[in-house]
Structures are given as C-alpha cells and as structure tokens.
Structure to design on (351 residues):
C-alpha cells in the first residue's frame, strides 16, 4: 500500500477536549475515522497524534488523507474526484428557496447573520475628500473583522490609522499611491495592500476616482482618522502591495484563487485572496473562519439554507463562521471576487 485510501472526500469536524490525545488515521483504512484503529500495521503509514489545546477547540481532521498538513485538512480534497461538487440551482429543493429582494439599510439578510451589502444603496459619510461607509462591523454581527468602503474623488486622502489592528485594503477601481509611514507604493485596481499594526496610511488617486475596501482586524467600530500621522513603517516586512499574477493561482476544482495579503508577507491575523468562480453553483458547505467577499465583476446568487439573494459587482457578502452557504455565478463569464478571512489562512478549507 503506497497511497492512502480516501476515507471521505471532506474533512471531519470535531470539538476537542483540553489535554486529550487524538490519534489521526493517515492510511485511510481505519473503521473509526478520522481516528486510528491500527489498520496501518504492516504498512508504511503511521498515525499522527494531536493533543487538544482547550475544551471546545474546533478542528477539521482530514478525511481524504491527501493533506500536506496532517492531521488537519488543507483543502487538498477539493482537487480529488468528488471532493468539490457543483449543485443544481434548479433542483426541486432549490427551486423552493425564496429570493430576498428587500433591503434593510443597504443589506439583504440571509440565514445565520449572513448578509449582502450594496455599496450603491449605502449611506455615506465624508471626511475631507473621502466618502466612506461601514460594510461590516460588530454592530452588524461580526466577531472578528470590520470592513469599510471608501471613494477618493481626487488628490490625497485624510490620514487613516486603526491603532494596533492589521489593515488589509483592496483597490476595486482606479490607481494611485498608498503611503504607509512615509513609504510610497504604486497601486492599481485588484491590488491587495497590507498595513501593519501601529502604522498609519493615506491614499492618493492618480487622476480618476480611487475606490477601495478597507478591512480592519480585529474589528474596528468605524473608520479611524488621525491628525497626527505615524512615521512607523515596519521595515522587516517591506512588501505591502500584491498584484494579480496568474502564475500564483491555486486551483480548487474549476475555481481558482490567488493569495494577496497572507502570512508570507507577515499578515498572521487576516488573509486576503482574489479568485474566480465559473458559471456554476457550488455544493453547500461551511468554513470555520469569518469571511467577507467583495464581488468585483459579474453577477450571481448567494445561497444559505433557506434563503438566497442576487449579487452584483460592488456588493459585499458577510459570512459568519459555520453558516452553510453556496455561491453561484449566473453569468456565463463567471465572477471575480476578493475575500478576507479571519481567523484562518487558507480559503480552500471547507466542510
Ligand atoms: S479532507 Fe483531506 S485535505 Fe481536506
């Protein structure tokens, strides 16, 4: 036996006890999945021990046995046969799910605190030449991240500073510069930008308006401006702007994504990615992280268990942890999206 047996094409969700040892089956032959029953004896496989860190620790033990980060799922199951399935939006059960069209303060509410926020229907505030609105905050049910949308008509923005939070920006339209602690970076649409705790920043538009989504993690209640820019720039982490590069794509069945801001450039708290969803509907699934998803191009439908709603470019989906959902691209060209997940560093892990 050279290759492990696929015990299940999805991970196993478990809640652990502090100090208890869990022996994960790596060969896939155990009848006590995801745990070892010594079926591996006589093979080259060995179980992997994990000790629970605290009561109620939530983990996803790999079921497909293809993970590179055993005992935990790393998303490898998405690329095995049956690991990432499509769903039929016109199945009898799906046709019974009603479409939400009504808005509550620019939000269309779905199940479990999930909502779709429309930047075109939002109320805005102004700070100098920066028009901004709250997309995600604790007041709207978020536990970990906040997100703001801002439009800079021209010139230099006021100085923004989110204290000791990690800040992740996505330029959705326009080009210009972001200046972080006195260091200037050229930015263009679809670039991801990382601002470290304690640093302040300004944005500057080249000519036309520059539009950006600003995520602060942990959550900030509102946009934060300062009269006194900080000169702090953590030079140990010099790379702050990450652009789309097709060479850096990861496949997830027919979908693909690229990491923008992640731990490789020092962001250990929030993770940002950009991806493409082809004309299809994914099978419903969950994540252990809280997620925001910005629709950059195309249109689609976002589904939770008992409700669904249409989405278009400029909308943001807020998805709490563990809410079952699926994303459908309804346009033949598919959709481009950008997401921020927290806590977590791998957007391909689902169960
Ligand atoms: S279940 Fe094996 S990598 Fe996800």
């Amino acid at each position: 036996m050279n290759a492990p047996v696929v015990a299940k094409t999805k991970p196993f969700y478990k809640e652990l006890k502090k100090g208890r040892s869990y022996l994960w089956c790596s060969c896939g032959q155990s009848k006590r999945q995801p745990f070892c029953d010594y079926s591996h004896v006589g093979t080259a496989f060995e179980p992997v021990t994990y000790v629970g860190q605290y009561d109620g620790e939530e983990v996803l033990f790999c079921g497909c046995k293809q993970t590179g980060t055993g005992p935990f799922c790393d998303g490898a199951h998405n690329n095995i046969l049956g690991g990432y399935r499509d769903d039929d939006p016109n199945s009898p059960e799906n046709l019974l799910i009603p479409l939400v069209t009504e808005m509550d303060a620019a939000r269309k509410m779905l199940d479990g605190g999930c909502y779709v926020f429309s930047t075109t229907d939002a109320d805005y505030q102004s700070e100098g030449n920066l028009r901004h609105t709250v997309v995600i905050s604790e007041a709207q049910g978020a536990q970990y991240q906040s997100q703001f949308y801002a439009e800079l008509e021209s010139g230099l923005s006021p100085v923004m500073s989110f204290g000791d939070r990690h800040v992740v920006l996505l330029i959705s339209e326009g080009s210009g510069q972001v200046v972080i602690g006195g260091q200037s970076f050229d930015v263009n649409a679809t670039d991801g930008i990382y601002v470290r705790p304690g640093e302040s920043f300004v944005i500057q538009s080249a000519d036309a308006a520059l539009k950006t989504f600003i995520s602060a993690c942990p959550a900030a209640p509102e946009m934060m401006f300062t009269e006194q820019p900080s000169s702090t720039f953590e030079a140990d982490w010099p790379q702050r702007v990450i652009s789309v590069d097709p060479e850096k794509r990861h496949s997830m069945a027919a979908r693909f994504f690229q990491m923008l801001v992640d731990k490789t450039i020092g962001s250990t708290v929030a993770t940002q990615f950009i991806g493409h969803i082809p004309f299809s509907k994914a099978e419903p699934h969950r994540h252990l992280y809280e997620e925001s998803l910005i629709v950059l191009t195309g249109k689609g439908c976002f589904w939770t268990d008992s409700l669904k709603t249409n989405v278009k470019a400029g909308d943001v989906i807020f998805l709490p942890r563990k809410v079952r959902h699926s994303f459908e691209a309804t346009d033949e060209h598919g959709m481009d999206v950008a997401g921020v997940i927290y806590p977590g560093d791998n957007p391909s892990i689902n169960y």
Q: What stands out?
A: The chain has a mean pLDDT of 96. Residues 10-11, 62-64, 66-67, 73-77 surround FE2/S2 (inorganic) cluster (CB under 6 Å).
